[in-house]
Design a protein that fits this description.
595 residues, 8-stranded mixed barrel, 21% strand
Length: 595
Protein backbone atom coordinates (compact mmCIF):
# COMPACT_ATOMS: atom_id res chain seq x y z
CA UNK A 1 0.00 0.00 0.00
CA UNK A 2 1.59 3.26 -1.14
CA UNK A 3 0.29 6.63 0.18
CA UNK A 4 -0.43 9.54 -2.19
CA UNK A 5 2.50 11.79 -3.10
CA UNK A 6 1.25 14.64 -0.91
CA UNK A 7 1.12 12.37 2.16
CA UNK A 8 4.61 11.07 1.43
CA UNK A 9 5.92 14.64 1.17
CA UNK A 10 4.27 15.65 4.44
CA UNK A 11 5.63 12.58 6.21
CA UNK A 12 9.10 13.17 4.80
CA UNK A 13 9.06 16.77 6.06
CA UNK A 14 8.06 15.66 9.57
CA UNK A 15 10.71 12.92 9.65
CA UNK A 16 13.29 15.46 8.58
CA UNK A 17 12.18 17.93 11.28
CA UNK A 18 12.36 15.18 13.89
CA UNK A 19 15.72 14.20 12.37
CA UNK A 20 14.86 10.52 12.18
CA UNK A 21 14.89 10.23 8.39
CA UNK A 22 17.45 7.60 7.46
CA UNK A 23 17.91 6.59 11.10
CA UNK A 24 18.39 2.82 11.27
CA UNK A 25 17.48 2.34 14.92
CA UNK A 26 16.89 4.25 18.14
CA UNK A 27 17.77 2.19 21.23
CA UNK A 28 16.36 4.91 23.51
CA UNK A 29 12.89 3.63 22.49
CA UNK A 30 13.64 0.04 23.50
CA UNK A 31 12.19 0.40 26.98
CA UNK A 32 8.89 1.70 25.63
CA UNK A 33 8.85 -1.13 23.11
CA UNK A 34 9.55 -3.68 25.83
CA UNK A 35 6.82 -2.12 27.95
CA UNK A 36 4.34 -2.53 25.12
CA UNK A 37 5.26 -6.20 24.71
CA UNK A 38 5.01 -6.79 28.45
CA UNK A 39 1.72 -4.90 28.85
CA UNK A 40 -0.05 -6.92 26.18
CA UNK A 41 1.85 -10.19 26.68
CA UNK A 42 2.92 -9.99 23.02
CA UNK A 43 6.07 -11.78 21.77
CA UNK A 44 6.55 -9.12 19.05
CA UNK A 45 6.54 -5.34 19.54
CA UNK A 46 8.14 -2.62 17.45
CA UNK A 47 8.20 1.04 16.47
CA UNK A 48 7.93 1.44 12.72
CA UNK A 49 8.75 4.52 10.64
CA UNK A 50 7.35 4.69 7.11
CA UNK A 51 9.55 5.97 4.31
CA UNK A 52 8.93 6.20 0.57
CA UNK A 53 9.96 2.63 -0.22
CA UNK A 54 10.91 1.09 3.11
CA UNK A 55 9.46 0.58 6.56
CA UNK A 56 12.17 0.86 9.21
CA UNK A 57 11.92 -0.52 12.73
CA UNK A 58 13.58 2.00 15.07
CA UNK A 59 13.04 -0.35 18.00
CA UNK A 60 11.91 -3.98 18.06
CA UNK A 61 11.61 -7.12 20.14
CA UNK A 62 10.86 -10.55 18.71
CA UNK A 63 11.24 -9.37 15.10
CA UNK A 64 14.25 -10.66 13.14
CA UNK A 65 14.38 -8.01 10.41
CA UNK A 66 15.31 -4.31 10.72
CA UNK A 67 13.14 -3.16 7.80
CA UNK A 68 10.64 -4.34 5.19
CA UNK A 69 9.38 -3.17 1.84
CA UNK A 70 6.66 -0.55 2.23
CA UNK A 71 4.33 -2.69 0.10
CA UNK A 72 4.47 -5.42 2.76
CA UNK A 73 3.84 -2.98 5.60
CA UNK A 74 0.78 -3.59 7.76
CA UNK A 75 1.61 -0.31 9.54
CA UNK A 76 0.95 1.55 6.29
CA UNK A 77 -2.71 0.68 6.88
CA UNK A 78 -2.48 1.64 10.57
CA UNK A 79 -1.40 5.22 9.85
CA UNK A 80 -4.55 5.81 7.80
CA UNK A 81 -6.89 4.08 10.25
CA UNK A 82 -9.25 5.92 12.54
CA UNK A 83 -7.62 5.08 15.86
CA UNK A 84 -5.85 1.82 16.62
CA UNK A 85 -5.84 -0.75 13.83
CA UNK A 86 -6.65 -4.23 15.17
CA UNK A 87 -6.47 -7.37 13.03
CA UNK A 88 -7.51 -10.36 15.19
CA UNK A 89 -6.33 -12.93 12.60
CA UNK A 90 -4.07 -11.82 9.78
CA UNK A 91 -4.53 -15.11 7.97
CA UNK A 92 -8.28 -14.46 7.68
CA UNK A 93 -7.87 -10.89 6.40
CA UNK A 94 -7.56 -10.70 2.58
CA UNK A 95 -5.32 -7.63 2.88
CA UNK A 96 -2.64 -9.47 4.88
CA UNK A 97 -2.99 -13.23 4.42
CA UNK A 98 -0.23 -13.23 1.78
CA UNK A 99 2.09 -10.95 3.79
CA UNK A 100 5.59 -12.48 4.26
CA UNK A 101 5.32 -12.01 8.04
CA UNK A 102 2.24 -14.26 7.92
CA UNK A 103 3.24 -16.85 5.34
CA UNK A 104 6.89 -17.09 6.39
CA UNK A 105 8.76 -17.02 9.68
CA UNK A 106 7.80 -15.78 12.23
CA UNK A 107 4.27 -16.74 10.99
CA UNK A 108 2.42 -13.94 12.76
CA UNK A 109 -1.37 -14.04 13.14
CA UNK A 110 -2.37 -11.04 15.30
CA UNK A 111 -1.69 -7.30 14.81
CA UNK A 112 -2.53 -4.12 16.73
CA UNK A 113 -0.98 -0.82 15.71
CA UNK A 114 -1.42 2.71 17.09
CA UNK A 115 -0.34 5.48 14.70
CA UNK A 116 2.52 7.81 15.70
CA UNK A 117 1.00 11.22 15.06
CA UNK A 118 3.16 14.36 15.15
CA UNK A 119 1.91 17.69 16.49
CA UNK A 120 0.88 18.81 13.00
CA UNK A 121 -1.36 15.76 12.65
CA UNK A 122 0.85 13.81 10.24
CA UNK A 123 1.24 10.10 10.99
CA UNK A 124 4.84 8.96 10.53
CA UNK A 125 4.58 5.32 11.62
CA UNK A 126 3.10 3.13 14.30
CA UNK A 127 3.70 1.43 17.62
CA UNK A 128 2.70 -2.18 17.06
CA UNK A 129 2.28 -5.44 18.92
CA UNK A 130 1.90 -8.81 17.17
CA UNK A 131 1.42 -12.43 18.16
CA UNK A 132 1.73 -15.86 16.56
CA UNK A 133 -1.85 -16.70 17.50
CA UNK A 134 -5.20 -14.97 16.82
CA UNK A 135 -6.26 -12.65 19.64
CA UNK A 136 -8.82 -10.12 20.76
CA UNK A 137 -7.90 -6.57 21.69
CA UNK A 138 -10.57 -4.71 23.63
CA UNK A 139 -11.17 -0.98 23.86
CA UNK A 140 -9.12 -0.65 27.06
CA UNK A 141 -6.16 -2.36 25.39
CA UNK A 142 -6.47 0.02 22.45
CA UNK A 143 -6.46 3.07 24.74
CA UNK A 144 -3.30 1.84 26.49
CA UNK A 145 -1.51 1.19 23.18
CA UNK A 146 -2.50 4.66 21.94
CA UNK A 147 -1.09 6.18 25.15
CA UNK A 148 2.20 4.35 24.67
CA UNK A 149 2.29 5.61 21.07
CA UNK A 150 1.95 9.18 22.36
CA UNK A 151 4.94 8.55 24.64
CA UNK A 152 6.97 7.34 21.65
CA UNK A 153 6.13 10.53 19.71
CA UNK A 154 7.01 12.64 22.76
CA UNK A 155 10.36 10.86 23.00
CA UNK A 156 11.08 11.54 19.32
CA UNK A 157 10.15 15.21 19.66
CA UNK A 158 12.16 15.57 22.88
CA UNK A 159 15.14 14.08 21.13
CA UNK A 160 14.94 16.70 18.39
CA UNK A 161 14.38 19.59 20.82
CA UNK A 162 16.81 18.82 23.66
CA UNK A 163 20.16 19.01 21.93
CA UNK A 164 20.37 15.29 21.27
CA UNK A 165 21.29 15.92 17.65
CA UNK A 166 24.47 17.76 16.85
CA UNK A 167 23.69 20.96 14.91
CA UNK A 168 26.83 20.69 12.76
CA UNK A 169 26.77 17.05 11.67
CA UNK A 170 23.09 16.28 12.18
CA UNK A 171 24.16 13.05 13.88
CA UNK A 172 22.98 11.93 17.33
CA UNK A 173 24.93 13.77 19.99
CA UNK A 174 26.79 12.65 23.07
CA UNK A 175 23.58 13.17 25.09
CA UNK A 176 21.76 10.75 22.79
CA UNK A 177 24.49 8.17 23.31
CA UNK A 178 23.94 8.46 27.06
CA UNK A 179 20.24 7.73 26.48
CA UNK A 180 20.81 4.95 23.94
CA UNK A 181 23.62 2.96 25.55
CA UNK A 182 21.48 0.71 27.80
CA UNK A 183 19.33 -0.26 24.81
CA UNK A 184 22.36 -0.86 22.59
CA UNK A 185 23.96 -3.15 25.14
CA UNK A 186 20.69 -4.99 25.72
CA UNK A 187 20.67 -5.89 22.01
CA UNK A 188 24.14 -7.44 22.19
CA UNK A 189 23.34 -11.08 22.86
CA UNK A 190 25.66 -13.07 20.58
CA UNK A 191 29.07 -11.38 20.53
CA UNK A 192 30.91 -8.77 22.59
CA UNK A 193 30.06 -5.07 22.57
CA UNK A 194 32.96 -2.81 21.63
CA UNK A 195 32.84 0.98 21.92
CA UNK A 196 34.96 2.98 19.48
CA UNK A 197 35.85 6.68 19.43
CA UNK A 198 37.33 8.23 16.30
CA UNK A 199 39.05 11.60 15.90
CA UNK A 200 39.14 12.75 12.29
CA UNK A 201 40.96 16.07 12.80
CA UNK A 202 42.94 16.74 15.98
CA UNK A 203 42.05 19.92 17.87
CA UNK A 204 45.24 21.92 17.06
CA UNK A 205 44.76 21.08 13.38
CA UNK A 206 41.06 22.00 13.60
CA UNK A 207 41.97 25.35 15.15
CA UNK A 208 44.44 25.96 12.34
CA UNK A 209 41.83 25.12 9.71
CA UNK A 210 39.34 27.45 11.43
CA UNK A 211 41.84 30.33 11.48
CA UNK A 212 42.71 29.90 7.81
CA UNK A 213 39.32 29.05 6.30
CA UNK A 214 36.82 30.25 8.91
CA UNK A 215 34.25 28.27 10.85
CA UNK A 216 31.82 27.47 8.04
CA UNK A 217 34.32 25.49 5.94
CA UNK A 218 35.50 23.75 9.12
CA UNK A 219 31.93 22.79 9.95
CA UNK A 220 31.44 21.57 6.38
CA UNK A 221 34.55 19.43 6.77
CA UNK A 222 33.24 17.92 10.01
CA UNK A 223 29.80 17.37 8.49
CA UNK A 224 31.23 15.56 5.45
CA UNK A 225 33.42 13.43 7.67
CA UNK A 226 30.32 12.49 9.68
CA UNK A 227 28.42 11.57 6.51
CA UNK A 228 31.31 9.44 5.34
CA UNK A 229 31.57 7.66 8.68
CA UNK A 230 27.82 7.10 8.83
CA UNK A 231 27.78 5.66 5.32
CA UNK A 232 30.68 3.33 6.12
CA UNK A 233 28.86 1.98 9.20
CA UNK A 234 25.38 1.83 7.73
CA UNK A 235 23.66 -1.32 8.93
CA UNK A 236 26.50 -1.95 11.40
CA UNK A 237 26.24 0.74 14.07
CA UNK A 238 24.76 4.16 14.85
CA UNK A 239 27.35 6.96 14.73
CA UNK A 240 27.28 9.62 17.46
CA UNK A 241 28.96 13.03 17.30
CA UNK A 242 30.58 13.27 20.76
CA UNK A 243 33.13 16.09 20.31
CA UNK A 244 34.18 18.82 17.90
CA UNK A 245 35.98 16.40 15.60
CA UNK A 246 35.17 13.18 17.41
CA UNK A 247 32.64 10.48 16.73
CA UNK A 248 31.73 7.29 18.58
CA UNK A 249 29.80 4.11 18.00
CA UNK A 250 29.14 0.76 19.68
CA UNK A 251 29.37 -2.40 17.63
CA UNK A 252 28.81 -6.07 18.40
CA UNK A 253 31.56 -8.38 17.12
CA UNK A 254 32.53 -12.02 17.76
CA UNK A 255 36.20 -11.19 18.36
CA UNK A 256 38.59 -8.28 18.92
CA UNK A 257 40.42 -8.99 15.65
CA UNK A 258 37.26 -8.18 13.71
CA UNK A 259 36.95 -4.83 15.47
CA UNK A 260 40.53 -3.98 14.52
CA UNK A 261 39.83 -4.95 10.91
CA UNK A 262 36.76 -2.68 10.93
CA UNK A 263 38.82 0.21 12.32
CA UNK A 264 41.48 -0.18 9.65
CA UNK A 265 38.82 -0.29 6.94
CA UNK A 266 37.28 2.90 8.36
CA UNK A 267 40.72 4.52 8.41
CA UNK A 268 41.18 3.76 4.71
CA UNK A 269 37.85 5.39 3.91
CA UNK A 270 38.26 8.37 6.22
CA UNK A 271 41.76 9.33 5.09
CA UNK A 272 40.58 10.16 1.58
CA UNK A 273 40.77 13.97 1.08
CA UNK A 274 37.76 16.06 2.07
CA UNK A 275 36.93 19.38 0.43
CA UNK A 276 36.72 22.54 2.55
CA UNK A 277 36.27 25.90 0.80
CA UNK A 278 37.53 24.38 -2.47
CA UNK A 279 40.69 23.19 -0.68
CA UNK A 280 41.29 19.42 -0.45
CA UNK A 281 42.05 18.65 3.19
CA UNK A 282 43.67 15.47 4.43
CA UNK A 283 41.82 14.16 7.49
CA UNK A 284 43.65 12.43 10.29
CA UNK A 285 42.50 9.26 11.98
CA UNK A 286 43.03 8.08 15.52
CA UNK A 287 40.72 5.63 17.24
CA UNK A 288 40.28 4.33 20.76
CA UNK A 289 38.64 0.96 21.44
CA UNK A 290 37.13 -0.35 24.64
CA UNK A 291 35.34 -3.64 25.26
CA UNK A 292 32.05 -3.13 27.10
CA UNK A 293 31.02 -5.87 29.48
CA UNK A 294 27.45 -6.82 30.44
CA UNK A 295 25.89 -4.30 32.78
CA UNK A 296 28.45 -1.56 32.06
CA UNK A 297 25.91 1.15 31.30
CA UNK A 298 27.81 4.18 32.64
CA UNK A 299 28.14 6.04 29.35
CA UNK A 300 30.08 8.91 30.92
CA UNK A 301 32.80 6.59 32.17
CA UNK A 302 32.76 4.73 28.86
CA UNK A 303 33.48 7.95 26.94
CA UNK A 304 36.22 8.76 29.44
CA UNK A 305 37.86 5.39 28.83
CA UNK A 306 37.56 5.92 25.09
CA UNK A 307 39.38 9.24 25.45
CA UNK A 308 42.15 7.48 27.39
CA UNK A 309 42.59 4.92 24.62
CA UNK A 310 42.27 7.46 21.79
CA UNK A 311 44.98 9.67 23.29
CA UNK A 312 47.07 6.55 23.61
CA UNK A 313 46.81 6.30 19.82
CA UNK A 314 47.84 9.98 19.54
CA UNK A 315 50.88 9.49 21.75
CA UNK A 316 51.96 6.27 20.02
CA UNK A 317 51.20 7.70 16.55
CA UNK A 318 49.16 4.62 15.74
CA UNK A 319 45.78 4.29 13.96
CA UNK A 320 44.13 2.86 17.07
CA UNK A 321 44.81 1.91 20.64
CA UNK A 322 42.93 -0.37 23.02
CA UNK A 323 41.92 0.89 26.43
CA UNK A 324 44.65 0.18 28.97
CA UNK A 325 43.84 0.05 32.67
CA UNK A 326 47.52 0.69 33.42
CA UNK A 327 47.51 3.86 31.33
CA UNK A 328 44.27 4.91 32.99
CA UNK A 329 45.73 4.38 36.47
CA UNK A 330 48.84 6.33 35.47
CA UNK A 331 46.69 9.25 34.35
CA UNK A 332 44.67 9.12 37.56
CA UNK A 333 47.91 9.15 39.54
CA UNK A 334 49.19 12.12 37.52
CA UNK A 335 45.94 13.98 38.18
CA UNK A 336 46.26 13.23 41.89
CA UNK A 337 49.83 14.51 41.93
CA UNK A 338 48.73 17.72 40.24
CA UNK A 339 45.85 18.23 42.67
CA UNK A 340 48.00 17.44 45.75
CA UNK A 341 51.02 19.57 44.85
CA UNK A 342 49.80 22.93 46.15
CA UNK A 343 48.76 21.42 49.48
CA UNK A 344 52.12 19.62 49.58
CA UNK A 345 54.02 22.89 49.20
CA UNK A 346 52.10 24.40 52.11
CA UNK A 347 52.44 21.28 54.26
CA UNK A 348 56.21 20.97 53.80
CA UNK A 349 56.10 17.75 51.78
CA UNK A 350 58.69 19.14 49.35
CA UNK A 351 62.34 19.77 50.09
CA UNK A 352 65.55 20.44 48.19
CA UNK A 353 68.61 18.25 48.02
CA UNK A 354 71.82 19.58 46.50
CA UNK A 355 74.29 17.73 44.28
CA UNK A 356 77.80 19.20 44.26
CA UNK A 357 79.63 19.83 40.99
CA UNK A 358 83.39 19.42 40.70
CA UNK A 359 86.24 20.59 38.53
CA UNK A 360 87.60 17.72 36.49
CA UNK A 361 91.11 18.95 37.13
CA UNK A 362 91.58 18.61 40.90
CA UNK A 363 88.08 17.40 41.82
CA UNK A 364 87.31 20.62 43.71
CA UNK A 365 83.63 21.39 44.47
CA UNK A 366 82.60 24.59 42.72
CA UNK A 367 78.80 24.70 43.07
CA UNK A 368 75.73 22.62 43.89
CA UNK A 369 72.58 22.00 41.88
CA UNK A 370 69.27 22.37 43.73
CA UNK A 371 67.10 19.29 43.15
CA UNK A 372 63.46 19.16 44.25
CA UNK A 373 62.19 16.14 46.17
CA UNK A 374 58.63 15.18 47.16
CA UNK A 375 57.59 12.84 49.96
CA UNK A 376 53.85 12.40 49.54
CA UNK A 377 51.98 11.65 52.79
CA UNK A 378 50.34 8.50 51.36
CA UNK A 379 52.22 7.70 48.13
CA UNK A 380 55.65 8.05 49.67
CA UNK A 381 58.73 9.28 47.82
CA UNK A 382 57.94 10.37 44.26
CA UNK A 383 60.62 10.77 41.63
CA UNK A 384 61.00 14.18 39.95
CA UNK A 385 61.01 12.33 36.61
CA UNK A 386 57.35 11.51 37.37
CA UNK A 387 56.00 14.70 38.91
CA UNK A 388 57.91 17.39 37.00
CA UNK A 389 56.32 16.47 33.60
CA UNK A 390 52.90 16.53 35.33
CA UNK A 391 53.57 20.00 36.72
CA UNK A 392 54.84 21.26 33.36
CA UNK A 393 51.44 20.49 31.82
CA UNK A 394 49.64 22.64 34.38
CA UNK A 395 49.79 26.10 35.92
CA UNK A 396 51.55 24.52 38.91
CA UNK A 397 54.99 24.78 37.35
CA UNK A 398 55.34 28.51 37.96
CA UNK A 399 54.29 28.15 41.61
CA UNK A 400 56.71 25.27 42.14
CA UNK A 401 59.52 27.18 40.41
CA UNK A 402 58.89 30.16 42.70
CA UNK A 403 59.09 27.86 45.72
CA UNK A 404 62.38 26.33 44.48
CA UNK A 405 63.88 29.79 43.90
CA UNK A 406 62.91 31.04 47.35
CA UNK A 407 64.05 27.87 49.13
CA UNK A 408 67.39 27.67 47.29
CA UNK A 409 68.17 31.38 47.78
CA UNK A 410 67.30 31.09 51.48
CA UNK A 411 69.78 28.21 51.68
CA UNK A 412 72.54 30.21 49.96
CA UNK A 413 71.89 32.98 52.46
CA UNK A 414 72.09 30.48 55.34
CA UNK A 415 75.40 29.06 54.10
CA UNK A 416 76.83 32.58 53.80
CA UNK A 417 75.78 33.28 57.36
CA UNK A 418 77.84 30.24 58.38
CA UNK A 419 80.86 31.50 56.48
CA UNK A 420 80.60 29.55 53.20
CA UNK A 421 79.90 30.98 49.75
CA UNK A 422 78.40 28.05 47.81
CA UNK A 423 77.08 28.97 44.36
CA UNK A 424 73.81 27.21 43.49
CA UNK A 425 72.35 26.12 40.15
CA UNK A 426 68.57 26.39 39.92
CA UNK A 427 66.41 24.95 37.14
CA UNK A 428 63.90 27.32 35.53
CA UNK A 429 60.92 26.01 33.57
CA UNK A 430 60.19 27.37 30.12
CA UNK A 431 56.77 28.61 31.29
CA UNK A 432 58.31 30.57 34.17
CA UNK A 433 60.96 32.17 32.01
CA UNK A 434 58.35 33.06 29.39
CA UNK A 435 56.51 35.28 31.87
CA UNK A 436 57.00 39.00 31.29
CA UNK A 437 57.96 39.55 34.94
CA UNK A 438 60.44 36.66 35.30
CA UNK A 439 63.66 38.70 35.43
CA UNK A 440 62.10 41.36 37.67
CA UNK A 441 60.97 38.68 40.12
CA UNK A 442 64.36 36.92 40.20
CA UNK A 443 66.24 40.18 40.67
CA UNK A 444 63.89 41.19 43.53
CA UNK A 445 64.49 37.86 45.28
CA UNK A 446 68.28 38.31 45.09
CA UNK A 447 68.23 41.94 46.18
CA UNK A 448 65.88 41.20 49.08
CA UNK A 449 68.42 38.70 50.45
CA UNK A 450 71.43 40.87 49.57
CA UNK A 451 72.97 38.03 47.55
CA UNK A 452 75.60 38.65 44.87
CA UNK A 453 74.20 37.79 41.45
CA UNK A 454 77.34 35.74 40.78
CA UNK A 455 76.21 33.22 43.44
CA UNK A 456 73.45 31.98 41.15
CA UNK A 457 73.43 29.89 37.99
CA UNK A 458 70.08 29.42 36.28
CA UNK A 459 69.64 26.25 34.21
CA UNK A 460 67.25 26.16 31.28
CA UNK A 461 66.37 23.34 28.91
CA UNK A 462 66.85 24.07 25.23
CA UNK A 463 63.87 24.05 22.92
CA UNK A 464 61.80 25.91 20.39
CA UNK A 465 60.50 28.22 23.13
CA UNK A 466 63.88 30.02 22.92
CA UNK A 467 62.83 31.69 19.69
CA UNK A 468 64.16 35.13 18.70
CA UNK A 469 62.08 37.94 20.12
CA UNK A 470 60.51 35.86 22.89
CA UNK A 471 60.41 37.23 26.48
CA UNK A 472 62.79 34.44 27.52
CA UNK A 473 65.55 35.76 25.27
CA UNK A 474 65.29 39.21 26.84
CA UNK A 475 65.37 37.76 30.35
CA UNK A 476 68.45 35.66 29.58
CA UNK A 477 70.30 38.67 28.20
CA UNK A 478 69.38 40.80 31.23
CA UNK A 479 70.46 38.08 33.68
CA UNK A 480 73.79 37.58 31.95
CA UNK A 481 74.44 41.32 31.93
CA UNK A 482 73.70 41.45 35.68
CA UNK A 483 76.27 38.71 36.40
CA UNK A 484 74.03 35.64 36.67
CA UNK A 485 75.43 32.69 34.75
CA UNK A 486 73.03 30.78 32.50
CA UNK A 487 73.47 27.10 31.68
CA UNK A 488 71.82 24.94 29.04
CA UNK A 489 70.77 21.76 30.84
CA UNK A 490 70.45 18.23 29.36
CA UNK A 491 72.18 19.20 26.11
CA UNK A 492 72.07 16.29 23.66
CA UNK A 493 69.00 14.58 25.16
CA UNK A 494 66.71 15.61 22.32
CA UNK A 495 66.40 18.93 20.55
CA UNK A 496 70.00 20.21 20.28
CA UNK A 497 70.87 23.24 18.20
CA UNK A 498 74.11 25.23 18.41
CA UNK A 499 72.87 27.67 15.76
CA UNK A 500 70.77 29.64 18.25
CA UNK A 501 72.99 28.94 21.29
CA UNK A 502 75.78 30.84 19.61
CA UNK A 503 73.60 33.96 19.68
CA UNK A 504 72.62 33.68 23.35
CA UNK A 505 74.69 34.86 26.35
CA UNK A 506 75.04 31.29 27.65
CA UNK A 507 77.90 30.52 30.03
CA UNK A 508 77.67 26.73 30.49
CA UNK A 509 76.61 23.71 28.46
CA UNK A 510 75.71 20.66 30.56
CA UNK A 511 76.11 17.43 28.58
CA UNK A 512 73.21 15.08 29.26
CA UNK A 513 73.79 11.75 30.99
CA UNK A 514 72.59 9.90 27.87
CA UNK A 515 75.69 11.23 26.06
CA UNK A 516 78.04 10.25 28.87
CA UNK A 517 76.83 6.69 29.53
CA UNK A 518 78.68 5.00 26.66
CA UNK A 519 81.87 7.02 26.31
CA UNK A 520 84.07 4.50 28.15
CA UNK A 521 83.29 1.64 25.76
CA UNK A 522 81.75 3.14 22.60
CA UNK A 523 84.02 5.02 20.17
CA UNK A 524 81.02 6.65 18.45
CA UNK A 525 79.74 7.96 21.81
CA UNK A 526 83.20 9.36 22.58
CA UNK A 527 83.36 11.02 19.17
CA UNK A 528 79.96 12.68 19.69
CA UNK A 529 80.85 14.04 23.15
CA UNK A 530 84.25 15.20 21.91
CA UNK A 531 82.71 17.07 19.00
CA UNK A 532 80.11 18.81 21.19
CA UNK A 533 82.70 19.70 23.84
CA UNK A 534 85.18 21.19 21.39
CA UNK A 535 82.49 23.16 19.56
CA UNK A 536 81.23 24.48 22.90
CA UNK A 537 84.74 25.56 23.85
CA UNK A 538 85.19 27.27 20.49
CA UNK A 539 82.04 29.27 21.27
CA UNK A 540 83.38 30.17 24.70
CA UNK A 541 81.19 27.91 26.84
CA UNK A 542 82.14 26.00 29.97
CA UNK A 543 81.33 22.28 29.59
CA UNK A 544 79.91 20.10 32.37
CA UNK A 545 79.38 16.35 32.08
CA UNK A 546 76.26 15.15 33.93
CA UNK A 547 75.53 11.67 35.25
CA UNK A 548 79.14 10.56 35.68
CA UNK A 549 79.08 7.21 37.49
CA UNK A 550 82.31 5.41 36.49
CA UNK A 551 85.98 6.22 36.90
CA UNK A 552 86.59 5.19 33.28
CA UNK A 553 84.19 7.94 32.19
CA UNK A 554 86.14 10.50 34.23
CA UNK A 555 89.38 9.46 32.53
CA UNK A 556 87.89 9.85 29.04
CA UNK A 557 86.37 13.24 29.92
CA UNK A 558 89.66 14.41 31.40
CA UNK A 559 91.50 13.45 28.23
CA UNK A 560 89.00 15.50 26.22
CA UNK A 561 89.46 18.53 28.46
CA UNK A 562 85.89 18.76 29.79
CA UNK A 563 85.79 21.43 32.52
CA UNK A 564 83.52 20.04 35.23
CA UNK A 565 81.65 16.86 36.22
CA UNK A 566 78.57 16.05 38.21
CA UNK A 567 77.33 12.58 39.13
CA UNK A 568 77.01 9.76 41.63
CA UNK A 569 80.70 8.80 41.31
CA UNK A 570 81.77 12.01 43.05
CA UNK A 571 78.69 12.95 45.07
CA UNK A 572 75.03 12.01 45.28
CA UNK A 573 72.30 14.59 45.99
CA UNK A 574 72.55 15.41 49.69
CA UNK A 575 71.22 17.59 52.48
CA UNK A 576 72.44 21.17 52.98
CA UNK A 577 74.46 20.07 56.04
CA UNK A 578 76.37 17.46 54.04
CA UNK A 579 77.02 19.96 51.26
CA UNK A 580 78.68 22.19 53.84
CA UNK A 581 80.91 19.31 54.90
CA UNK A 582 81.99 18.72 51.27
CA UNK A 583 82.95 22.37 50.79
CA UNK A 584 84.54 22.69 54.23
CA UNK A 585 86.70 19.62 53.55
CA UNK A 586 87.75 21.06 50.20
CA UNK A 587 88.66 24.37 51.86
CA UNK A 588 90.81 22.60 54.44
CA UNK A 589 92.58 20.58 51.73
CA UNK A 590 93.21 23.70 49.68
CA UNK A 591 94.65 25.59 52.66
CA UNK A 592 96.67 23.11 54.80
CA UNK A 593 97.77 24.29 58.23
CA UNK A 594 101.52 24.85 58.44
CA UNK A 595 103.37 24.00 61.63
Amino acid sequence: MSPPTSQRDERSAVLSAMQVDGLASLPALDRLTALAGYTFDAPVAFVSILGDVKQRFLSRIGLPMAQTDIRASICAHAVTADGVLVVPDLRQDPRFRDNPLVTDSPHLRFYAGAPLVAKNGVAIGALCVMDTRPRTFNEGDQDQLATLAELVVAQLELRAMSGRLDPVSGLPSRHQLHADLPGILARCTEGTAYAVAVDILDIPRANQVGQVLGLRPLEALIRRAGVRLRAALEGVATVYHVGVTRFAFVVEMPAAAQVEALILELRTRMLRPLMAAAVPMSPRFHAGICAVGPGEEDSHDLLRRLLVSMHGAFDARRPFCWYSEQRDEKMHRAYRLASDAERGLQAGDFHLDYQPRFTLDGRRPVSAEALIRWTHPTLGSISPTEFIPVFERTALMDEVTNWVLDTALDQVQAWRAQGLDIPVSINLSSSYLSNASAWHDIRSKLEHRALPFSMIELEITEGEWLRPGSPAIGHIAAMAQAGITVAIDDFGSGYSNFSYLSDLPIHTVKLDKSLIDGIAINPRARAKVSAIHHLAHELGYLTVAEGVEQQAQVEVLAAMGVDEVQGYLLARPMSPALVMQVFEAAAITACPVRV
